[in-house]
Structure formats: C-alpha cells, structure tokens
Amino acid sequence: MATLLIRNGTIIDPSQSLEARRDLLVRDGRVAEIAETLSAESVEVFDASGLIVAPGFIDLHVHLREPGFEYKETIESGARAAVAGGFTSVCCMPNTKPINDNSSVTSFILEQARQANLANVFPIGAITQGSKGEQLAEIGEMKTAGIVAVSDDGKPVLDSGIMRRAMEYAADFDLPVVDHCEDCCGATGWAMHEGAYSALMGLKGLPGAAEDLHVGRDILLSEMTGARIHIAHISTARSVDLVRQAKARGLAVTCEVTPHHFVLTDEDVYRSGYDTNFKMAPPLRSRDDLEAILKGLRDGTIDAIATDHAPHHANEKMYEFDKAPNGILGLETAVSLTLDRLVHGGVIPKARMIELLATNPAKIFNLDRGTLQVGAIADVTIFDPEKQIKIDASKSQSKSRNTPFDGWELNGAPVATIVGGRIVWRGI
Ligand SMILES: [Zn+2]
Ligand SMILES: [Zn+2]
Questions:
Q1: What is the mean pLDDT of the chain?
Q2: What is the Å distance from ligand 2's center to 355 Cα?
Q3: Ligand 1 center to 293 CA (angstroms)
Q4: How many CA atoms lie within 13 A of 56 on its CB side?
Q5: Which of 308, 340, 379, 384 is the catalytic position?
Q6: Which ligand has the nearest atom to the CA of 94?
Q7: How far, in Å, from the CA of 372 to the mean position of ligand 1?
Q8: Mind giving me the DSSP string for 224-261?
Q9: Max alpha carbon distance in the chain (Å)?
Q10: How far is the CA of 334 from the centre of ligand 2 (A)?
C-alpha cells in the first residue's frame, strides 16, 4: 500500500511525551517509524517544515443532520467540513430524523460515512427512544452496530429515575453517557443567558444554575451507578467547579468546552444587535464564566475541546432572535480559534491543546486513535501555528453558513488532514 513520509515537522504527541523535530513514515495506513531523519524509496513526501504534526483531531460533538435534515448538512458535507477544519474523526449526535435510537439508523450513518470516505464518523446513540426522556433506547443493539457513547443531546434527560437506569445500562455496556445539562428551572423559552444583558435586550434568560443543577445531579448519579459521564459543552463557572470537585473525589466524570464558550460572552450577543448567529444552547455566558472556563482549560479540569457543530439553513436563522433555532457551525473555525485565543493568548501550550483535541477525546470515547505511537492508525493533523487567516463563511465546506466568526482574522490554522495514512485535505 502507498507510503507517506512526513518530513521536517515538529511532532507533538502527548501520548508518548514527544515534542521534537522528527520525520514520520506511514505504511499500510499505520505509523511505521518515527526518527530524526528517515528516507524511503518511492514514497509520497509531505514537507512539514515549520509545521506541527499531531495525532488526528477528534471532535466528540457534532450534528451532521442526516438522516432527515439534509438541507442543513449531510454526512458527506459534514465530513468534508471536518477534514477542512483539521479533524480526522467526528462523533455525531443522534438528534436526526429519525433519531439514532436503533441499530438500523446507526448502520445507515456508518454506511454514509464509509461512502463519503473522508473523516472517521463515530455515531452516538440516543439514551431514550425518540430522545423523549421516557423509555430507554436499544443501547446494547446500537453498541453492537457501532455507537461509541449515548446521549439525548439537544434535550436534557429531566427524569432522574430514567437517567439513573440509563447510567446503569450504559455502564454495563462500557459506554459513556454524554450529558446535555439544562434543568428547565422554570426557564423554558429562553433566548440567552440570564443576566444584565438579557434584561437590557428584553430577552428571556436561562440562568447558569439551570446547568449547575443538572451537572450536580448527574455527578451524584454517576457516583451511585459507577457510570462514566461526560458533560457536553460546559458553560458556567459553577459547573466547572463541580467537575473539579468530582475529579478530586476520583469519579469518572469528564467534560468538554466549545470554542464559542471560551471566546464569546453574553456581551457579544448584545453587541451583535440580535444576530441569531450568537444564539446557541447553552447560551453564551458571562465574563466570569468565561474566565472560569479558561482556568479549567489551564488546570486540567476541562478534558476536551468539542465544537457542537450545529448547521442551520440561512432561512431558519433569519427568524427573530427568540424564535431562531440554537446552534452554530464549528468544524472549520475551532482549530484557528484555539490556536489564536488559547495558545497565542498564553492560556495553554501547544501540547495541552493537542491533549484537548486528540489524546483525551480518544480516551473519553475509548477510540483506538489519538496517538502517533508506532503501529497506531495513521490519523494525523498538520497545522501551522503562525498562518494568518481570515474566516470566510461563504467558502465553508458545510451546507450551512451560520457562524458568528465570519470575517475574523486569526493566527494559526490546519494545513493538512491525513486519515488512515491518506491525505484527505490540504490547505497548502
Ligand atoms: Zn447539547
Ligand atoms: Zn449538541
């Protein structure tokens, strides 16, 4: 099989505590050799001078919209956006139509992904049938078909008894429960974070406590059942604290943050003038929440960066602010936002960034990825930490255009994405 030599790059791989200038040889889709200088006969050579070579980035949280909402995104267009954003793998949420709550939908997603032949796609199965929060879905059957986690993302599982049984069941199948934490707390019909800006804008707010209550409950349920839980899109200071305490007690609790929650706040919603590209669940929070998230990224409390890539058609986002659907694109902006704001912003070093985007995501969902050790599947992300880019939503590979970052100038970008030893995207 074809062989690829990635030359002169700086390999950063936290799984083997490696950060050094090295050549990397790929053979038969796997990492064959890493050394200071390698040469091989009749191979494709990728010159990575001045670039960082990392284990392929894994997005634990995307919405690919197929089946059912192909006008927003398909598995093919989502996978194309993923590789153009430096992601070799994405894990897709089950809130399609039909919901991925049985093995035939799981198999359909995997087949579409196989045909697209771009990024790896790992489906997440629903916790409850139709994600209605009432009866458990066919979790065992979906695990056999290939799901890597369960979640009713988009909605919280409000009934504590159902969540307890879901955790017991998921633990039996060694699957993590991915938790969309939003206790309704009397705040149905909210449009943004509850605070001074929601008052100023006359919009109904969702208090941070709505998330904290749910995170607290599920940490307690995880302790009781022994289930692994993964808090999706953590957004409040108190929730970060709760996860920090749970970890200190040795519980199997992990969490992810989205780039928009470490870059934007409710003040940006105000400044945008009711721009619906600033509307998502959970909502953009306060400056204090954002500072707590940066602390959690620094001290290891936050395990992963995930995009919550949520394409919506332009017509849907043209509704009034309180009626527009939640969610924004994320796959093609995440790496640049992370490099610009977290690495160049002095919050974390590059090795920690790679831990958040590759090493830890692989561990959390138990994927045989996230490493460049010899013998590993050759999923590789190559990025240029100094590449100056200007985000242009009109050039997105996604079928949708809903991003608040259009026109932003950022420092750092992915330049090549390699899946199973094959270059599937090149930005240079
Ligand atoms: Zn969610
Ligand atoms: Zn989501």
A1: 97
A2: 21
A3: 17
A4: 34
A5: 308
A6: 2
A7: 31
A8: HH---EEE-S---HHHHHHHHHHHHTT--EEEEE-HHH
A9: 67
A10: 15
Q: What tokens appear for 22 in the block?
A: 């090295």
Ligand closest to 233 (CA) is 1
Overall residue count recorded for the chain in this entry: 428
* Beta-sheet pairing, 253-257 with 304-305: parallel
pLDDT 10s digits, 172-229: 999 999 999 998 766 788 999 999 999 999 999 999 999 999 999 999 999 999 999 9
Please say if 28 is a catalytic residue.
no
pLDDT in tens, 37-63: 998 887 999 999 999 999 999 999 999
Question: Within 13 Å of residue 24, how many CA atoms lie on the same side as its CB?
Answer: 37
Distance from Cα 33 to the centre of ligand 1, integer Å: 40
Cβ neighbour number for residue 42 with a 10 Å cutoff: 6
Nearest ligand, CA of residue 330? 2
Convert the pLDDT of each residue in 85-111 to its tens digit.
999 999 999 999 999 999 999 999 999
Q: DSSP readout, 44-111?
A: EEEE-TT-EEEEPEEEEEE---TTT-TTT--HHHHHHHHHHTTEEEEEE-S-SSS-S-SHHHHHHHHH
Ranges of residues in the chain whose predicted pLDDT is under 70: 1-2, 185-186
HSE (side-chain half, CA atoms, 13 Å) at 70: 6
Q: How far apart are the C-alpha atoms of 97 and 74, rounded to whole Å?
A: 12
pLDDT at res. 183? 86
Query: How, if at all, do strands 18-27 and 3-13 pair?
Result: antiparallel
